[in-house]
Amino acid sequence: ASPHGSLHGRVLSSRDGAPVAGAELVFTHEGASITARTDADGAFSAAVSRPGRYELSIATAEGFLPYAPEWGHSAIAFEARPRQRIDGVVVQLRPERRVEVVVIDRETAPVAGATVRVMGGRSADLAMAPVQEQYTTDAEGRATVVVWRWAALEARHPERGVGRERVGRGDGPVQITLRALTGDETASERIAGVVVNASGEPVEGALVTAFRRARGIHPSAQSATDQGGAFALEGLDRGVHVLLARHPAHPDAR
Predict the structure, then answer these.
(1) Using an 8 Å Cβ cutoff, are 59 and 119 in contact?
(2) The three-state (H, E, C) secondary structure of 27-89, written as one string
(3) Single pTM value for the model
(4) C-alpha–C-alpha distance, residues 162 and 180, integer Å
(5) What is the pLDDT of residues 98-107, one digit of tens each?
(6) Which helix (H) or strand (E) covers residue 91, if one does?
(7) Residue 252: is it exposed, middle or buried by C-beta count within 10 angstroms (0-12/13-18/19+)?
């Protein structure tokens, strides 16, 4: 019935397929945005004011991790055409997981005042709506953090050292044992540069990601280029990294 086209679908939990009520979805098109909200059955409808390509820029719901990739890099989009209705779209949101982190030293004593960091809390699908990244352990060496399955955690203490672990499938506590710092586990290094096209002109809005080329758990970093094509990747370990640049109008580059 919409003169310019419309999109209809549901928002479901990625855990069990249950409908997500009260989710808010923001679609963007050439700087303008429209908002849709799900009902009790997780259903939504988005009627647009003009035809064209609309990206799902942000999807949020209480108790779920947001879907909020860098602007212009959403994997979910639709082409609105006059009087055409698109049905059956399914958007999945990952439920938040609250897990208890226990930080101990090599003698299994609890470490109070350690900084627990969720690695990757400002990248990928969380870039535009980051989750809380840092927590501090209490007197018993414990902290409750919001994470997702296979999220990487780092615990660091200025006198006791550093430790890293991944969140598994279960809901039990995640134990991180601190040990002496190595030369590579700095999480403070920086890589900066410029993305250009085949003619050497700067590319604005390219998404650059850095991955450490080594075994173990290491932080990655992500940055979008500015008008001059410049990017800066922060919080990396010391060592060799692979950089991947992506842009919708260009082939990927490594």
Answers:
(1) no
(2) EEECCEEEEEECCCCCEEEEECCCCEEEEEEEEECCCECCECCCCCCCCCEEEECCCCEEEEE
(3) 0.82
(4) 7
(5) 999 999 999 9
(6) strand 85-93
(7) exposed
Cα distance between residue 37 and residue 97, in whole Å: 23
Spatial CB neighbours of 173, under 8 Å, sequence gap ≥ 6 = 99, 100, 101, 102, 142
The CA distance from 182 to 29, in Å, is: 47
128 neighbors 58 (Cβ within 8 angstroms): yes
58 near 66, Cβ under 8 Å? yes
pLDDT, tens digit (0-9, with 9 covering 90-100), for 112-171 = 999 999 998 777 888 888 788 999 999 999 999 998 878 899 999 999 999 999 998 777
Instruction: Please state, in angstroms and rounded to a whole number, the distance separating the CA atoms of residues 232 and 224.
Output: 8
